[in-house]
Amino acid sequence: MPVSRDKWSSISLASHELEITSAGAIEHLLVHRPAQIRKLIVGGRGPRRENILELARRAGVAVEEKNQEGLRALLNPYPYADLDRWLSELPAKALVVVLDHLEDPQNFGAICRTAEALGVNGAIIPKDRSVEVTAGVYHASVGGVANLPIVKVTNLSATIKRLRDEGFWIVGTALGEKSTAPAQVPDFDRVALVLGSEYSGMSEKLVDKCDWQVNVPLVGTVPSLNVSAAAAILLFEFSKRLSVPPSAPPQQ
Length: 252
Fold this sequence. Notes:
alpha/beta, 21% strand, Alpha/beta knot, 2 domains, 8 helices, 4-stranded mixed sheet, single chain
């Protein structure tokens, strides 16, 4: 069964209000997650404006029309998932992504967009020294982050151990003698894909906890890929094998 944030017993809320201006992200939220929008401020004119107004009316979202250019959506705090409840609701076959101190909201948003599109069951991020859900993440994910369960944890090493106890095989992205192409990794029912930070990759202590280390084989002259590009390739590879059921849109 899909994982539903409706059932989670504990939800952690970000402490600040978010404001987004991306028309694509706003449209996505109005269709798939309207409860996340506290208020929509609409200006300008044109067919897209009228379509967004109609979507807002259907969803019962509060609208304020102003003499301004463009759109602004004031969002309710982002609901982070509780680790224990989230794990208890995961299906037998599951794919999750663990982000080791990612810092760039654009990368985080792009990874969330790919993960949500492929039906990944959630993302795990550390509470400290890491990007969190910001307006930039909403924009880069075109609103998709609102439909992806995201868990904040205090200790990634302890969480990876917990994932292993729950039947996950830990696959980390790293270069080196032990790293192999994704095709060499056996098929598993539960996979946690660990992605390192933009500048330093995975920390050594997390590399040591991986069951498998993988890299994206490159044949051109470019020596490496951006973390979000590598994530897209690897998440597609493992989601294709698992055919994971998508996570249901969360509700507050």
